[in-house]
Amino acid sequence: MATRIAVLDENVINRIAAGEVVERPVSVVKELVENSIDAEASSLELDIENGGKKLIRIRDNGTGMSHDDAFLALERHATSKLRSEKDLVGVPTLGFRGEALASIASVSKLRLMTYDGIEDSGAVIVVEGGVLRKSERTGMARGTVVEVANLFYNTPVRRKFLKGPSVEAGHIQEMITRFALAHPTVGIHYREDGRIKLDAPAVRSTLERVHTLYSRDVRENLMQVERSLDDIRVHGFVARPPYARSNMRSVLTFVNGRSVRDRLINSAVSKAFANLIERGRYPLATLFLELPPDQVDVNVHPQKAEVRFVNPQLVFSVIVDGVYEALTGAPFTPPPGPKEPILPKPPTTPVLQHVKDEREREQLAPIATAGGQISSPVPSLSLPALAPAPMQEPESRFSTLGVLGSLPGSFLILHSDDELIVMDHHAAHERVLFEELKAVDDSGVGFECQDLLIPRVLEYPPVEARALAQHLELLERVGFRIEEFGQNDFVVKGVPSWIGDTDLERFFGSLIDVMLDTGLRGDPRRFREELLKSMACHAAVKGSKTLQPEEVRALLRDLDRLGAMEVCPHGRPFLIKIPFAEISKKMGRR
Length: 590
Prior knowledge:
Elements: H1 10-21, H2 25-38, E1 43-49, E2 55-60, H3 67-73, H4 100-106, E3 109-115, E4 122-128, E5 131-138, E6 143-149, H5 156-160, H6 165-182, E7 187-192, E8 195-200, H7 206-213, H8 216-219, E9 222-229, E10 232-239, E11 251-255, E12 258-260, H9 263-272, E13 285-290, E14 296-297, E15 308-309, H10 312-327, H11 350-362, E16 402-407, E17 411-415, E18 419-424, H12 425-443, E19 450-459, H13 462-469, H14 472-477, E20 481-484, E21 489-495, H15 504-515, H16 524-539, H17 549-561, E22 575-579, H18 580-586
Parallel strand pairs: 1-7, 11-13
Antiparallel strand pairs: 1-2, 2-6, 3-4, 3-6, 4-5, 7-8, 9-10, 10-13, 11-12, 14-15, 16-17, 17-18, 18-22, 19-21, 20-21
């Protein structure tokens, strides 16, 4: 009886394997660049034509290969990086499977030139569609050149699904940028159809490479991340809010020098930005995670784009803590490498002197300290005495601004020496209240409560009453004295000073809406933060209120005291800056 199952031809097997490894031109670039870096190259050049569909050429000055090794490198599963199964645990190199060159050669016209500096001459090997066409000796400098022409010429269905040249080239440039960030000591030069797209000479540090690749606008918003726990270290840079991008591709993550798209890492970054960035916007971050190779499995994805961690919760915590600390006040001190500092220290200016003189004239109240009260009509919090901590001088980002006046709709008009600034005072005060409420909730130390002369009775339907009853402890911690009064009623006997003249019925109604949100039940910390956001939003000074000069100054000092980000708790920016140079340009003065 004839069999229905047959062993596939070797060429068919190679093309199937190529489909897993070589998805599009950027897949070829990734595999070849990884080989160059593993070969200890200190410089590599990449040229592409027609988005990589017509030509991909990579030239490096790495260790190169002998004539015999060059032939072996084109065989499937032939590699110098593994010898046995145990070597798969703790892979220290970027490549390790030994199938990239064979897969690429099966779906293109590949030309490999290499010289190891030991033999008398180098080797040239030409393979078309997996078939050897030419092999000869040649003279060349030590290193390797790989040319991949007419990608997918023999698999027209795969070629048909490629995007236009500009799209494919965009993917390649993004990938090359990732390599440049992960390996700053390697000089990388990238050309597209003969035009230079990226020129990144070798430098000593990631910071210098960031300085080379990112625009001044990005650099001026960067904060440094640095945190270690046990054998895990996370370092890199994040852009402070409200600087953000439209998609998650702006979060670049690397594990032991390998560019990855990892859901756990992205989730940790998003969590750190949870109260600092607007919904639908995404942070800009470049993060490097370093841990022992045996603590991460890199052999879980055909293109090695994903990893698995032995201790994912520990990795998650290190990233969240590191990013959050950077965003909430970690200093950023560039080393002497770059000529231009990323975050230059503002010089002493006439505005600073003007503010100092204004304070002395008005004899404003001092900045509130732990346990004290801010003498300002603005409803403002005062932190209770928490655990002792070293006193640090707050950065004067807001309190040194000059005050020009206000606009209808909760907007203040401020200025520095080179910018006009419009601030939403409701959103800014909302950020102040949220930060202080969150600090109290985290510390476990409650606010003082002020008794009401006439207690307020509130009545709710059964479902809402049960939700409110389950969270009385949090309300007591932030300064309320509220008790159940009957089956569905509550009596409010005391309130905190920060609540001001807020309508209690609307205030508790908004909290109950959050308490009933089923989408928050799986994340207790986010749930509590959403409650605190709601409290801050309803208690913040109203947009319709016109602030007096001393109230404005108290608000600006509070923002400095808390090291507040320039966004409200929901992630919306509470100020915009207009450079005087831009105003002069619009006025036709320059």
